[in-house]
Amino acid sequence: MNDTPRLPEARLGELIDGLVTQGWYVGTAFLPDALCEALHAELDDMTARDALVAAGIGRGDNHHLRRDVRGDAIRWLDRESQAQRRYLDAMGELQQALNQALFLGLFEYEAHFAHYPPGAFYRRHLDSFRGRANRVVSTVGYLTPDWPSDGGGEMVIYSPDDEREVARVRPEAGTFVCFLAETIPHEVLPTRWPRASIAGWFRRNASLGGMIDPAR
User: Fold this and answer.
1) Overall pTM > 0.85
2) At what angle are helices 9-21 and 82-102 packed, to 10 degrees?
3) Which residues form the Fe2OG dioxygenase domain (predicted)?
4) Which structural domains are found in the chain, ordered by start?
5) Rounded CA gap, 183 and 185, in Å?
6) pLDDT tens digit string along 91-130?
7) Measuring CA to CA, which residue among 10, 20, 4, 40 is closest to residue 179?
8) Are strands 195-204 and 106-116 parallel, antiparallel or unpaired?
């Protein structure tokens, strides 16, 4: 793999326009194939070694497991591999582009691998709530190649104004989704195939009680 991450400039313009006009963006073949392959192999290895943890909902004292709400297992990215560094560096480029174009004041980015075994899902939710957290923009990068037509596991994006479905995203390697964390409801439909992705959030710095809000 080339050591220098580069996101396609024309696609970055599409992404920014999508956030401005509708609050979300879906780009197929957005992430480089070689990077997706390396990250997918890394996640497969973690899954085989039982190195993932069951994902919960909520944060801090409110964090708890709810397998009736979400069924994925996760591991936070920590730059321990070249592939992770390349992905996080690419997200750094995106953060800079969003700040320059939209003046969002994004301060940092956090992300984790997500593995959904067959039967797993994540019910409809928002990634952030107004005035209660500092996640501003959410991202999802998909890693599974050759996703079957009957594999399930699509992410459904809903209109923030009503119950209407506005997009259904097939979790195919290379597809990248970006949306406003506080306003765009979404869910993961039950999957019939092992589903691999990286979920991430650009955060705005916040201070609570004189202390900087931690990343997680």
Assistant:
1) yes
2) 50
3) 102-204
4) 9-55+78-204 (2.60.120.620)
5) 6
6) 999 999 999 999 999 999 999 999 999 999 999 999 986 5
7) 20
8) antiparallel
